[in-house]
């Protein structure tokens, strides 16, 4: 696997970009694990502005009124289903909780952060040869 830094990723909220289909905007929805246990809420979407694709969900959990809240980045590849009020992951809450912490300054200082995060969750990084972007997993 390459240790080459991926293209710069940005938070959707920090851009003037919008989602083509407003129904695909999962910000504010609850995130649940493979057992249906609460993981947190989608705070933002981390996107590749060049390819205009969402790469990670930023999920906040814990804390009170935003104080002490822990932020995690979860690859969109981990999402198995999305319904009207929840985003369902194919992993357990304990796995998410033990993932590498998200700190924007850490990401800038550690060029392998995204690669390490993909490796932790067991997915190839989006810049790897042969990577296929996952389809939007709507609830049927």
Automatic annotation (TrEMBL):
It comes from the Bacteria. GO terms for biological process: photosynthesis, light reaction. Residues 24-88 form the PRC-barrel domain. Pfam families: PRC. InterPro entries: Bac_photo_RC_H_C (IPR014747), PRC-brl_dom (IPR027275), PRC_barrel-like_sf (IPR011033). One of its GO terms (cellular component) is plasma membrane light-harvesting complex. This is DUF2171 domain-containing protein. It comes from Jiangella asiatica. The lineage of its organism: Bacteria, Bacillati, Actinomycetota, Actinomycetes, Jiangellales.
């Amino acid at each position: 696997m390459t240790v080459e830094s991926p293209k710069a990723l940005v938070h959707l909220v920090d851009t003037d970009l919008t989602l083509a289909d407003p129904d695909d905007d999962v910000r504010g929805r609850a995130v649940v694990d493979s057992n249906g246990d609460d993981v947190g809420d989608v705070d933002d979407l981390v996107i590749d502005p060049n390819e205009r694709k969402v790469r990670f969900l930023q999920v906040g959990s814990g804390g009170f009124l935003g104080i002490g809240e822990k932020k995690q980045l979860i690859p969109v590849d981990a999402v198995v289903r999305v319904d009207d009020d929840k985003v369902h992951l194919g992993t357990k809450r304990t796995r998410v909780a033990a993932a590498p912490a998200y700190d924007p300054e850490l990401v800038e200082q550690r060029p392998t952060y995204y690669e390490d995060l993909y490796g932790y969750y067991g997915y190839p990084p989006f810049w790897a040869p042969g990577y296929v972007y996952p389809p939007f997993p709507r609830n049927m």
